[in-house]
Amino acid sequence: MTLAQSQLADQRAEVASLGDQVAALEGQLVSLRSQHAFARQTLHEYVYPVLDLPREVSSEIFLQTVVDVFAQREAGLRKRNRLQLFPLSLAHVCRSWRDIALSTPALWSSVALACYNIWAPVKMLERWLARSGALPLDLYLDTGDRAMADEILPVILPYATRWRRLHFFASWGNQDLFVLDPTMFSHAPAMLEELEMRDFSIAGLDSAVTTIDRPFKDATNLRRLTMNVVTLVSLALPFTHLTELTMTGPATPFGVLRILTAVTANLESLNLRLGSSPQGTAYSGSVTLPRLRKLSCASKYAVPALDILTLPALEDLSLGITGGVNSDTRVLALLDRSECALRSLRLDSSAVVTAHALFQAAPTRTVQHLTLVRPRWFDDQRLLIPPHFRPPPGIETISRISSGEWLPELQKLTLEMYLPGEPLMPFVRTVKERSRSRKAIGEFEVTMDDAYNKEALKAIDGLKGVRVSVKAMDRES
Prior knowledge:
Layout: H1 2-45, H2 55-65, H3 69-74, H4 81-84, H5 86-90, H6 95-102, E1 110-114, H7 121-130, E2 137-142, H8 146-156, E3 163-169, E4 178-180, E5 194-196, E6 200-202, E7 224-228, H9 229-234, E8 244-250, H10 253-262, E9 269-275, E10 287-288, E11 294-297, E12 309-310, E13 316-319, H11 327-338, E14 344-348, H12 355-360, E15 369-373, H13 395-403, E16 412-417, H14 425-434, E17 443-449, H15 454-461, E18 468-473
Parallel strand pairs: 1-2, 2-3, 3-5, 4-6, 5-7, 7-8, 8-9, 9-11, 10-12, 11-13, 13-14, 14-15, 15-16, 16-17, 17-18
């Protein structure tokens, strides 16, 4: 019995000890729970400084953060849907920010939607525009197809009097125009400054339709316009106020001449993106655009239109010509006839211009910025050749540019490389070597698609004596 009592006593002592430990831990647990509750309450009651800002300050911060899509396009940057929908993200952070966002109409006065990438775009656009108050509207809408365009148009038309900038796309690569009823635009937006509707035509616009009935006739503030030639000829737009014009569609000589004649007064930028025309390409007459500083010729069907132009103030020339009859002669004749002094020259790989003739022409000797897109050369022959040829790089051509024999005033050379495996390094080395014999090119920039040709990027980074800026190509879709 003595042994049993001894064992029981030990067990009772152990139980008592464990009980004391449990009691102590329970006491600590009570204390920890109290501390935990206090910490949670303190955290819950904490006011973040950013949430304590005056509503006007928060609203202004939001406005400064919103991406200006139109400024992005002018800078050649790709549209970012995630950033364009930033006001929606603000409204989902907290109740305070949601109230501020919804009560700031300026956040909703600009909208850029690629409708094919967004769920329920019609409903989203309806709510977005309803929040814009009475402010002028900047709309960039890419519907992707005509069915969606039919749904989007009724949403934006009630706001037509507030359109300031409208870019509306209805089709992808379809040559047939989307026909609109002119009564849809009966309330012409007087504040309209910028209009791009290249996929559309207006039904019934002919000699029987009076000017009073024509859409956009009251858009006297219109400065920038992109539209199909066929539609432009029919509209009674205030062409004399335009400063920037982009013509698309069939290159009908009569239509192009009529439009250019109407825009002579203030036009500063002209972009010709013309296609083939059953009427041929025989131009007659002449048009002088005294203030035109920038010309872009983007297709072989636009080249014949150069025959009728005289551009004494031309400073910026961009050529993306894919062949055509006497393209070289026409470009050089335009420069000679205009007696202009170019400052910027951009050549696409598909442009057909003789290197010797172009770079020795008097107007190009003043060029300070040369941009070569997808450069591939045959020395002493064609400067830029069709993409399906893959010859070795034209070292002699780039050597003459770098040494100052051609383009002696050049300050910046930009190479835009869209494809991997471009013969980039010979150009870089040649620019480095030849620049020693002349006043060095101030800036040598290489723009590439993403991180293609990593070896070339690594080699460029190690070069000395030439300022090189490498960045990812961000082309607009």
